[in-house]
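Session log. Operator J.P. requested a structure for one protein chain; no other inputs attached. Running the standard single-chain path with token output.
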Amino acid sequence: MSKKDVLLYALSTCIHCRNTKKFLEEKNIPYDCVEVDTLTGEERKKAIEEVKKHNADCSFPTMVIDGGKCVIVGFNKERIQEELCP
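Structure written below.
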């Protein structure tokens, strides 16, 4: 199974976001993370627009896999494992 591109949109203060990051790290799943609440100005606006493309509610965490082929909203261990663990 080839590695999938994982982008996590999170908030630095969100427990569900922290749990998602911890789970990905425990499973040795590489990912990029954008902590939206630490961004400012145009960067923040663009990040929120990106989240809304995949999750209209703009809730966190929002995980975008392979450019949007799969999107997981919230901390859902079973779904993450199903999508990302060989």
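Operator note: The longest helix spans residues 41-54.
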